[in-house]
Amino acid sequence: MDRMPPLEDFPAPIAAGFSPASLPRPASLAALFWAISGIALQGFGGVLAVVQRELVEKKQWLTTEEFVEDWAVSQIMPGPNVVNLALIIGDRYFGWRGALVALAGMLTFPLFVVMALTIGLAGIGHLPAVQGALRGMGAVSAGLIAGTGIRLVPALRNNVMGTLACALIATSVFIAIAFLRVPLAWTLLGIGLPAFFWALQRIRALDATPQGQV
Amino acid sequence: MTGFGYGNLLDLLGCFVTLSLLSVGGAITTVPEMQRFLVSQNPWLTDGQFSASIALAQAAPGPNVLFVAVLGWNVGMASGGGPANGPLPWALASAAMAVSMVGIIIPSTMLTFFAARWGQRNRERPEVRAFKQSMAPVVIALLVATGWLLTASHGNLQQAPLLWLLTVASALLVWKTRIHLLWLIGAGALAGVLGLV
To answer: Which of B59, B124, B181 is nearest to A127 (CA)?
Structure first.
């Protein structure tokens, strides 16, 4: 297993000059607000796929690894996951002001849109065409969520637990949730907790070796 | 039957504050509890109004927690006598909507904010690193499983083959291409309007 992530895993500025200050980041609170608002308004049936596209791939404010780490915290904490994610990203760049601004960006315009829909569409929600459109959009957004998950798999490449353990953990979580319908809390206890202790043991073993940096 | 009034705003706030702290996996996981509180325990919404509120919010862009705003709005609107009944139902609906959103958002975001900061300060600790490393394959699998479950809720492969095809095709396109996601959503809506799926 790799002890050091290969150099090409870092964004170019770090690999070239080791200067994190030159990494892409939001220029101002306003830029953060508009970026998050734009993402939220594109997120039909789930904002996560758009966050990954815009912040990781286009703007490169986050690496895939950072994105997966922040997403893990967002998902394990109570509350709407993408709202938590926006909060964490905002906080990282601008402290509590960034967290508030990101929260506002995620909720303000979508709240107006959903209220306008509630007031405007109150009478036609039962029409077959509307029902059909909702069903079709639902099927696509289900695919977007699953596809985003697959797209994040490269973030596991340097995982301390090793490829085999990661594959085993991911497969058993999928089977537990999708087929056996085990509640999330039990899945986390039954699979996440053993995985945590395995990772902890690997990290301690690597730290004990002289050049062990993970 | 006693409808919802301004005196009930605190009850509504209490309900959503509690659920906010319990909503691991997103607010959508507490829907059964919300239904119990708003439909069964209190006569504020009918079953139909409840599920219509959620379906409508799902169709709108943005985080799906906004269904709570729609629920709050409809609680106030239904008890106030509907939109044609003058300004009173609109005021009650706005108040109920604001209270519901504050209740569902503030507690969980406060908790996440401080937990994430603690994790950031202690990111060198073996426990924090182990948490992040071990959760990575878990959350990736959760995403794929969520996509699976969302489509499965419409029926299995035999009952809804074209719907599954649509899901798999969009998953492949997201994975392998950089096509704009709104095109995919639009194609899904069109296929639905035409009755293909």
So the answer is: B59
